[in-house]
Amino acid sequence: MEMVSNAPTGPIEKSWETHKFGLKLVSPANKRKHNIIVVGTGLAGGSAAASLGELGYNVDCFCFQDSPRRAHSIAAQGGINAAKNYHNDGDSVYRLFYDTVKGGDFRSREANVYRLAQVSVNIIDQCVAQGVPFAREYGGLLDNRSFGGAQVSRTFYARGQTGQQLLLGAYQALERQVGLGTVKMYPRTEMLDLIVIDGRARGIVTRSLCDGKLSVHFGDAVVLATGGYGNVFYLSTNAKGSNATAIWRAYKRGALFANPCYTQIHPTCIPHSGDYQSKLTLMSESLRNDGRIWVPKKAGDKRPPASIPEHERDYYLERRYPSFGNLVPRDIASRAAKAVCDEGRGVGETGLGVYLDFSDALKRLGRHKLDERYGNLFEMYERITGENPYEVPMRIFPATHYTMGGLWVDYNLMSTVPGLFVLGEANFSDHGANRLGASALMQGLADGYFIIPYTIGNYLASTKHEKYSEDVPAAKEAVANVNIITKKLLNANGKRTVDSYHRELGKILWEYCGMSRNAAGLKKAAGMIAELREDFWRNVRVLGSNEEFNQSLEKAGRVADFFELGELMCADALHRNESCGAHFREEYQTPEGEALRDDANYSYVAAWESQGARRPASLNKEPLVFHYVKPSQRSYK
Amino acid sequence: MKLILHVWRQKNAQDRGRMVRYEVPGVNEHMSFLEMLDVLNQGLIEKGEDPIAFDHDCREGICGMCGFMIDGKAHGGFKGTTVCQLHMRHFKDGDELYLEPWRAAAFPVVKDLVVDRSAFDRIIAAGGFISVPTGSAPDGNAIPVRKQDADLAMDAAACIGCGACVAACPNAAAALFVGAKISHLAHLPQGQAERNRRALSMVRQMNREGFANCTNIGECEAACPKQIKLEVIAQSNADYIRAAFRERPETVVSGVG
User: Fold this and answer.
1) C-alpha torsion sign, points A485, A490, A491, A494
2) Quick one: what percent of chain B has pLDDT higher than 70?
């Protein structure tokens, strides 16, 4: 398969401007003749649907939740980056670009990242104008903080609920368009297949989650903004409903899946407590700004934290990375936590946890300041664990949080299926092998507000769009495909619940394809998953029928896709014989235990192409060329 | 510990519905309430019985998807807590609990504990926004906002749209939800241009959806998992009255946007 990145050449500072000028326009009178399908209403989908509606397109917008305001972007806590340099501390578009390329361990496309840094400043303006109540200084200007390993203060925030406020901004813009009639909203509706006609994406098949009714929706373009696939691990910080079904079924219809093995494990989550655990809760990594991370120096030290004297504590991040200390990027902080727990120095009942201690910050800043910065996070922690972080250090442990991999897209955010655009976490672009903190919100909104409105017009203006009826064979075939899957799930009539399969799949992936991986483990995992998948189709128990509100059936379809995706993740992790960012292969590390890249052989995007159910996916490579940021060994020492 | 649950089971909107008794043994104090229901549901599926349907998503208390009545109290009645963040350490062995969906004419039952809250979306669509097409915004620091105003706006903007306020209200009024949005945007300079029409349009839509009037009882404030204050209702009433005098009818009729 040919992959053309369409990334502009020439000076990077001008490339988006030049590229935009080269994009064809759709005249105002013609915009209303185009129907666009947007799946997902998070920051990327919500902002895209609203912006496309404002331009005058007819938009059909879908979400599986009961309201577009619930998409999981809402749970993002810490903040959103923008290269405003309001603090006069040396930030710039170029520095944000540089940090993001480096943070991604040189596995992202330079031109995309530069554009992201450029439009970051517009995002803040847009959100402020929408009424997003960002934190303010007493002078009335926007407050910023330093976040997740950045050495400048470029993160804008709204208490610990930045994602919520940004999403509500996009949601309100979206509802405004719903009120004006440009966007038609379909809540509690799940996309189950992509309709491809003459090689182009022309529609989707959806199932109403209320009554099971399947519907065919046609569009001149289809935009997927359905989020990441972190729930493949079962336990993650994602919402329970977050799933990969839309992008996976698009993959099966010909869209390439890029870098599936790049999954981010977030270092600061509340440790898991028992087998009934349904999800893991993130504690914003902004906590690392003021909290100090430590474990006992001695393995097996079970004394309560207050009884462990200062000289018997190991502040391991400050020790290993003196210049970044507790603020090293996520992948590094997570692996370091795993390492100390593997040495038997983990804390808490399970031994899978490290302390995040605020006692020094309390002395330095006082209770009032800490409350203002982290009050709601401390409350959340206490609600879940029953412990007060002002009195006992928090316990944290890494958990799956974000997936850098996703459907491959070109510079225009179009996948390898013409007319299929992919935004936000659902695509692979921008973050390389590791995402920096406060950059997911930035990317979602950049894609939706400031990129897709331009690039989709170019596609629409340069393509002819026939009208189809539901009798068109591709639509009938897609509906039949969905029916087959549903029947198979309902008729298996087995013994095991969907959740029990999902949990087992998650355990396999966490063990062998999680924070660190090796060839033998990955091969073993692939075998185990294949076996479990076979068993699933024979022995799963889904009660009830299709024609009703049936949460087990919804989950079963999603888990079926997670099995296949899990296998592809293992294949991708196995083929990438290097360590980079979040992908840590034990065989490839420096003597100090840091990730060892192999730029000579692996400086490319691995884009996998489905070859049908019976044959393994084939690998396509998009070489990565760095003209501006010279690949180097990341050092945070 | 072991719990006894009486759960409202209703197959769909047409079904009459009834309470069904369940025993849940082996409940651990660290479980969340929804994890306890997960365990019950796994057992039901294994026995071949239809699991209990309930809405949930983020399980972090921020998406607003979950919520039902526990013993007549929205989200269980614990201060500042959604039911997904309610942990079983608050209950004791042998407790008998009654679980019911939100009860309000404007929130029809979909199944069991799941209700349709799309009325809230329609209220927002009627005017709960600032009209600012993408790309037309001035610099973020062009208009300073007093810190106190930004903080008050944020207090109101914290609403998660779960519907507990409506469920807790004896009148099934949506005044706290509507007031939260009106107050959020009214505290910001960016929200001033549409302040009058926003108040009128949102209140009009609220009435159309079948929410009853607020009679200042205050149950909503007590039930709100985000502790939105009753004063947002005062703010929206004041805005509504002011708008009713100041706004010309033509502007209102011509709609929003």
Assistant:
1) positive
2) 96
Residues A383 and A271 in one domain: yes
Q: What's chain B's length in residues?
A: 257
In 3D, which of A350, A538, A263, A67 has the Cα closest to residue B119? A67
Could you give the residue range(s) of every CATH 3.10.20.30 domain in chain B? Answer: 3-111
Nearest to A242 by CA among A71, A448, A407, A399: A71
Distance CA(A33)–CA(B188), nearest Å, equals 37
Residue B252's pLDDT is 52
State pLDDT tens for residues A200-210. 999 999 999 99
Cβ distance B125 to A187 less than 8 Å, yes or no, reads: no
**Minimal Cβ distance to B129: which of A158, A172, A384:** A172
Cβ count within 10 A of residue A249: 23
Residue A570 has what pLDDT?
Answer: 98
| B10 at interface of A, judged by CB pairs closer than 8 A | no
How far apart (Å, rounded) are the C-alpha atoms in residues A37 and A66?
18
Within A175-296, strands assigned E span 183-186, 189-197, 200-208, 214-218, 221-224, 257-258, 263-269, 292-296
Q: Cα angle vertex A636, ends A88, A120, to 5°?
A: 40
Domain closes at, from A350, A375, A400: A400
Q: Which of A149, A399, A436, A76 is nearest to A265 (CA)?
A: A399
pLDDT in tens, B150-188: 999 999 999 999 999 999 999 999 999 999 999 999 999
Average model confidence (pLDDT) across chain B: 96
Asked if A43 contacts A444 with a C-beta cutoff of 8 angstroms, the reply is yes
pLDDT (mean) for A410-431: 97
Q: Which two tokens stand for residue A190?
A: 């799940």
Q: Domain B3-111 maps to which CATH number in 3.20.20.480, 3.40.50.1110, 3.40.30.10, 3.10.20.30?
A: 3.10.20.30
Amino acid at A435: R
Say what the pLDDT of residue B237 is: 97
Q: Which pLDDT does position B28 carry in this prediction?
A: 94
A90–B contact, CB cutoff 8 A: no
CATH number of the domain encompassing residue A477: 1.20.58.100
State whether B256 and A47 contact (CB < 8 Å).
no
Which of A130, A174, A211, A243 would best serve as a mutation to test chain B binding (most B beta carbons within 10 A)? A130
Supply the CATH classification number for the domain B117-253.
Answer: 1.10.1060.10
Task: Share the mean pLDDT of chain A.
Answer: 96
Pick the residue from chain B with its C-alpha nearest to A175: B125
Q: What is the pTM of this model?
A: 0.97
- Rounded to whole angstroms, how far apart are CA atoms A343 and A354? 12
Cβ contact A589:A596 at 8 Å: yes
Instruction: Write down the H helix ranges in A464-550.
Output: 473-491, 498-512, 519-539
Q: Quote the tokens at residue A544.
A: 């009830």
Domain count, chain A: 2
Q: Which residues contact B168 (CB under 8 A, 6 or more apart)?
A: B73, B74, B219, B220, B222, B223
| Sequence-separated (6 or more) residues with CB below 8 Å from residue A561 | A243, A244, A245, A248, A249
Report pLDDT for B67: 98
Spatial distance between the Cα atoms of B257 and A364, rounded to a whole number of angstroms:
49
Determine what percent of chain A is predicted with pLDDT higher than 90: 91
Q: What type of residue is A151? A: Q
Distance from CA of A590 to the nearest CA of B (A): 38
Q: Which domain holds residue A481?
A: 473-599
CA-closest candidate to residue A505, choices A552, A450, A565: A565
A458 phi and psi, to 5 degrees? -60, -45
Can you give the pLDDT at residue A78? 83
Interface of A with B in 178-237 (CB under 8 A): 178-180, 185, 187, 210
Side chain identity, residue A20:
K
User: Is B97 near chain A, with CB under 8 Å?
Assistant: no
